[in-house]
Amino acid sequence: MAAKSQICSIWLGSETGILKGVGLTKKQAFNFCEMSCMSRDQEVCVMAWGDPHESEVLVGSVNGTVKTFSTDKGIFTATRECGDPSQGRFTGLAVTDSSMITCVESGLLKVWKEGSTETTEVNVGNGICRMQQNQSQRHRVATGGKENPLKVWDLERPDKPIFTAKNVAHDWLDMRVPVWVRDIGFIPDSDKIVTCTGHHQVRVYDPSSPQRRPVLEARFGEYPLTALSLPANQGTVVVGNTHGELAILDLRKGLVCGCLKGLAGAVRGLQCHPSLPLVASCGLDRFLRVHSLEDRSLQHKVYLKSRLNCVLLSSRELESSNADFSGDVEEVKAEEEEDEVWDTMETVTEKAKKRAAQKDEAPVTGVDGKKKRKLVKKSDVK
């Protein structure tokens, strides 16, 4: 298993509770789990790197456990009970120098100190959809959810949030605009924060300014946005929605720069590479896709058999030249070819069905040679 895990540069969590590793050089996909004890309550909700060297992957499951997977050894090395399933599923997972941070849907955020049973608990409000860590200031996190506005917390002083966003002004009918934060991102080398909402809005907040409302708002599509990620080059954000649409938005002008095509299901996981102009996405269509952010072309596509919830990219090169493990390559390629066949088939609409039905119908003549009004299918005429 160690030989398999060492060539994987992308990690994904599935609904079936399987941690999947993918090596893009030969499109090799591997499952890392104990198949004998798999169950629905082990569905992977969140993932994060356990250390700066990326030798450990933390996997948070629906049943409230956080497992530690060693990418060097290719096995799970530890399991920790970090939540109560009655409190909801994990919405965020992060680590600091000496602690692990978890957050669940009920709004219970916990800081687990290394080597100690003591925890720091913070109530961030109900209906949390996402908790995100600031990578430049790792003791700061942002939370948001349904009717729970964006909040920024300093875990060294967790008594109250250091920033709470204010809802936008009423719409043109003078009605309150609902709040539904789905994902959050911190803009590097800046105090600004980007959010996407369940009402297809992308908003930029600046906590350093006296204005608590968004300093920029843009819209994409007509469906709820589910995930976002910030590319290595500043000034843009990649967002995905429930209908498999990916788009690159300009954060300066609030305009759509372009769309990334090829998806066929809701986007659940989305992450840009830390240094390369690449973005990986996954979701309900069971595919991992890697797009180029320069020409928006599809670079890699791997079928992984299970519905996918989250994706985690390594900061190193995604395509390794020393990937010489002969894994389950043929099966992956076969699934890709099958998907291409389905992609080339013509979509049958309701109008096409009616036209086909009319062609199959023919008038029947009676004994006197006159046509009857009743129409039957040709196959019924003898």
UniProtKB/TrEMBL annotation:
CDD domains: WDR74 (cd22857). Residues 349-382 are annotated as: Disordered. It is found in: Nucleus, Nucleolus. It comes from the Eukaryota. Isoform 1 interacts (through WDR repeats) with NVL; the interaction is independent of RNA or pre-60S ribosome particles. Isoform 2 does not interact with NVL. Interacts with MTREX; the interaction dissociation in a late stage of rRNA synthesis is required for appropriate maturation of pre-60S particles and depends on the ATPase activity of NVL. It holds the Pfam family WD40. Keywords: Methylation, Nucleus, Phosphoprotein, Repeat, WD repeat. It comes from Sinocyclocheilus anshuiensis. This is WD repeat-containing protein 74. Its main location: nucleus. SMART domains: WD40. GO terms for cellular component: nucleolus; preribosome, large subunit precursor. GO terms for biological process: ribosomal large subunit biogenesis; RNA metabolic process.
